Amino acid sequence: MLKISVHQLIWVTIGAISLTIFTGFGHLFARYHQAIASNRPITKVSHSATKVTTPVPETVDWHKPSLSRPYPKLAKYDDINIQVSIKKQRVYLKNHDQPLYTMLASTGKHGSDTPKGHFEIQAERGQHFFNTQSGEGANYWVSFKDHGIYLFHSVPVDANDQYIVKEAQQLGKVANSHGCIRLTIADAKWLYENISTHTPVVVS
């Protein structure tokens, strides 16, 4: 007859309990991972492969307004001001600090930077200009500094008054102007027709 001491009996019992607990947790973990796997696709990843992220290009319709909703009726507001963000390549039309409309923009490239500071819409504005020195012009321009030097205007045109598509596609993405602030054709036209002289402009 096999004799088992009390000591041995205790260790056998502890071993049996541990095996039961371990097995139970094993089943729980298996069910947990199965539940996760059922809710998401499993993709094989090669450890030797290099992860490549392809950016999704943003399509800019530089003919149209930046937003799909109507432009604000400025007569309804008592403190219209324009905030230009060089970092974000955006022009924000505000009443006090309340945003009214956001426009895609392209400010001055490095070496021809758009000046930062506090300015205002000046009296000078026009429907078209062409600069023979830079070989570019634009439509619907409004001056905000140095009386005809620094402007809000449309995306650029060439000597034949044709819009330069490559430049226009930089709106909202890259600072690429000669110091002025480029806008979509519709935004520039609306600003030209509606913004009042002396409206504050802050470029930062």
Key phrases:
alpha+beta; 3 helices; 204 residues; 25% strand; 5-stranded mixed sheet; 24% helix; 4-stranded mixed sheet
> Radius of gyration over alpha carbons?
32 Å
Low-confidence stretches: 25-30, 35-57
Strand numbers in spatial order across the main sheet: 3-2-1-9-4
Mean pLDDT: 83
Distance between the termini: 94 Å
Biggest sheet record: 5 strands, mixed
The amount of beta strand, in percent, is 25-35%
- Count the DSSP helices: 3
Identify the overall geometry.
globular
Q: How many strand elements?
A: 9
Structural class: alpha+beta
Q: Classify the helix fraction into a percent range.
A: 10-25%
Order of helices and strands: HEEEEEEEHEHE
Provide a brief overview of the structure:
This protein has 204 residues and is α+β, with helices and mostly antiparallel strands. The chain has 3 helices and 9 strands, in the order H-E-E-E-E-E-E-E-H-E-H-E.
Summarize the SSE layout with pairings.
Layout: H1 6-39, E1 80-85, E2 90-95, E3 98-104, E4 117-120, E5 125-131, E6 136-145, E7 150-154, H2 165-168, E8 181-183, H3 185-194, E9 200-203
Parallel strand pairs: 1-9, 7-8
Antiparallel strand pairs: 1-2, 2-3, 4-9, 5-6, 6-7
Can you describe this structure?
The protein is α+β, with helices and mostly antiparallel strands and 204 residues long. It contains 3 helices and 9 strands. The protein has helices at residues 6-39, 165-168, 185-194; strands at residues 80-85, 90-95, 98-104, 117-120, 125-131, 136-145, 150-154, 181-183, 200-203. It has a 5-stranded mixed beta sheet, with no helix packed on it. The chain has a 4-stranded mixed beta sheet with strand order 5-6-7-8. It is globular, with a radius of gyration of 32 Å.
